[in-house]
Structure formats: C-alpha cells, structure tokens
Amino acid sequence: MGSIIRLPGITAAAAIGGAALIMAAPAAQAQPAAAALARFSVPRSVAALDTAIGFANTPGGATLQLAGNCTYFITVPAAAGDGLPLISTPISLVGAPHTVLSRNPGAAAFRILDVAAAGTLQLSNVTVRNGQDRKSVV
C-alpha cells in the first residue's frame, strides 16, 4: 500500500560520507522507459538515507529499500525546513515491518519529505511521524 505525493520544493543537497549503499547492477542493454528503477538497500542511519536520496536523484530515479524494525530519527534537517534532501526524480521508499521516518522530538520543526515538481514519491510500508506541513514551516 502506498501513496504518491507531489509538492513544489526548494533545492537541497547533502554531502555525507561513510554511508554504505548497495545498488543493483543495471542490465547491459538499453532499458525501455517503463523499466524498473535502480534499487538501493539503505542501512539503518539517517546519513545513509540522505546519501541514498542523493544517488536516487539522478535521471531515472530509484527504489530505496529501508530497514525494517528501524526508526530513522532525523535530528538535523538536510536543508532549511526539510528533514531529508528534496525528491527531484521518481523515487520509491519501500519499508519493511515497523519502518519509520521521524523528526527527533527534541529537534526544531521541519518537514520530513519534500517533493519537487519534477519528482514523484511512492511510499510502501513506511510510517512518517512528527513532521510539519509546508504552512507550519518558516
């Protein structure tokens, strides 16, 4: 079960080192437009998720497989008002049982996810908590 969210956003970038990502190797031949998105497995850290979204924001987008039984607590926003980097391509966030994206309760208010006009976001098995809507964030 998932939903698609499309909101205009601001440009954001995150350069975070040390995150390990696994990407499925693309087929050697050209892919048709309806081909499956590249797939990344995202370890249990916000830094790894920020990095994965950066990789996924390349032409064609990607599917990001998030860890199960894990809460990605976002303490420091990637950009003013946005907890994670701006989604600017087709991206799917696929969770497992008990996958949560949440603003750390001690952090200042910010949105968890923001999607640019050119991007799309599909969520499957992911709970999003403690974020603010666009009107609430200055």
Model description:
With 138 residues, the protein is mainly beta. It is built from one helix and nine strands. It has one helix at 46-56; strands at 2-5, 22-23, 38-41, 62-65, 70-74, 90-94, 99-103, 120-124, 127-129. The strands form two sheets. It has a six-stranded mixed sheet with strand order 1-8-6-4-3-2, with helices on one face. The chain has a three-stranded parallel sheet with strand order 5-7-9, with no helix packed on it. Strand 3, helix 1 and strand 4 form a beta-alpha-beta unit. The chain starts with a strand and ends in a 9-residue tail after the last strand.
Strand content: 25-35%
Shape: globular
DSSP summary, beta strand count: 9
For the biggest β-sheet, the strand order reads 1-8-6-4-3-2
Average pLDDT number? 78
Question: Distance between the terminal alpha carbons, to the nearest Å?
Answer: 32 Å
Radius of gyration: 14 Å
Largest sheet: 6 strands, mixed
Subunit organisation of the chains: single chain
Helices and strands, in order, run as EEEHEEEEEE
Percent of residues in helices: under 10%
Determine the structural class based on helices, strands and strand pairing: mainly beta
Number of helices: 1
Stretches where pLDDT is under 50 for at least 5 consecutive residues are 1-34
